[in-house]
Design brief:
Layout (H helix, E strand, L loop, with lengths): L1 H10 L1 H16 L12 H19 L2 H10 L5 H19 L1 H18 L6 H15 L8 H9 L4 H23 L22 H18 L5 H15 L9 H18 L2 H11 L3 H12 L1 H9 L5 H10 L9 H13 L4 H26 L1
């Protein structure tokens, strides 16, 4: 039992911390009917639906086929890196930053091994990670913190755009500048030909495209979340019920635990007043700093309970995903893949990752100080 708990803590550290905090808070505020008002059920339902839909697209090999198609146009190491990094930047807007990295980082490692060029791959994976974290900020469904804050705050499309697009735009320019540092040597046969997934038929794609459209209608408040949730469950049961296994239920439970923890803190007047004093008017710094130690998703849930300026908080936790390796949990995905392939280069990876992240964070925070 002890070994299982250690393994769970190692794999799902943030969930375990959130569960402990929720349980401890229950001693201060005993469970009652008020607990049912804590969760944002709309966010939880949308997260479940989107994770299931993305799993469906991934099972059909859609993202890998897209990557292979684009890579056939690569003529040099620089163009190869540019395609991979920009693929992560734009795909993360729809399929989230963590799914993007789960899909394309292993693909990147395979590509560079096949062309016999292991030297540049470290920089490319670091830039891919930056691209996924930064590109995902541009849409309400790009990452969990966007989905939660956009839903919980009832932000308008204009408010959301102002809070994220200036930084996503500058991020793209910074990534393009960083790509100029990549080598220009020619490369041939960059596309791995083995194990290529067959192209899915339109009939297999249509159910998931339809479900994605329903979810977008829910995101922009044209449809109640219950309708989309029911549709996703029924369609996936009919098409491929194994997709339910691909849902990150620990992420959903992490959200639930933080909802309980924050809900209880808000019912303790002294704690509520103190946290509001610390957060209100200081959302940018509170979000960035909290993200460095908690990661940006828990930071968004925690700080949202003590601020009314959700637009500033949205900017803060998205920028806060830069910095430390745990500032965005998606960054751990890239590190684990790279460390497994090149264990002797873990230290170099962490050094370059931290350097690039701090550089991007400093520039984007400077921009935020001008806008906010």
């Amino acid at each position: 039992m002890l070994n299982r708990l250690k393994s769970l803590f190692h794999r799902e550290t943030v969930f375990c911390v959130s569960a402990v905090l929720a349980v401890l808070s229950m001693f201060l505020v005993p469970p009652d009917g008020g607990y049912l008002r804590y969760p944002d059920y709309r966010t939880l339902a949308l997260l479940f639906c989107l994770m299931t839909i993305v799993a469906g697209f991934r099972s059909l090999g859609v993202f890998e086929l897209l990557g292979r198609s684009l890579l056939r146009r690569a003529s040099s190491l620089r163009s190869l890196a540019a395609i991979l990094v920009l693929l992560c930047f734009f795909c993360s807007m729809v399929i989230t930053n963590d799914v993007t990295l789960l899909t394309f980082v292993p693909f990147t490692l395979l590509v560079y091994q096949m062309i016999g060029r292991d030297e540049p791959v470290l920089s490319v994976v670091v830039l891919e990670t930056l691209a996924a974290n930064l590109g995902s900020m541009a849409t309400p469904i790009g990452n969990p913190q966007n989905l939660y804050l956009f839903s919980a705050a009832s932000l308008t499309a204009g408010q959301f755009a102002w809070a994220v697009l200036p930084y996503a735009g500058l991020s793209l320019l910074l990534l393009l500048a960083a790509l100029l540092l990549q080598p220009t040597e020619p490369v041939r046969d960059a596309v791995p030909r083995d194990n290529a997934p067959p192209a899915p038929t339109l009939g297999k794609l249509l159910p998931f495209l339809g479900l994605l459209a329903l979810c977008l209608l829910v995101v922009f408040r044209f449809l109640p979340y219950g309708a989309a949730l029911a549709a996703v469950i029924l369609v996936v049961l009919a098409v491929n019920r194994k997709l339910f296994r691909s849902v990150d239920y620990f992420l959903l439970l992490t959200f639930l635990c933080f909802f309980v923890f924050i809900g209880n803190l808000k019912r303790i007047p002294e704690v509520n007043d103190l946290l509001r004093l610390l957060v209100e008017g200081h959302e940018l710094w509170a979000g960035i700093l909290a993200s460095q130690f908690l990661s940006n998703v828990p930071a968004a849930i925690l700080l949202s309970g003590f601020s009314e300026d959700f637009a500033a908080l949205l900017t803060a936790v998205n920028l806060g995903g830069l910095g430390t390796l745990i500032a965005s949990l998606a960054s751990l995905i890239s590190f684990k893949f790279f460390a497994a392939a090149y264990p002797q280069r873990k230290g170099r990876y962490l050094g370059k990752f931290t350097l690039w992240n701090l550089l991007f964070l400093a520039i984007l925070t400077g921009e935020a100080l001008l806008f906010l």
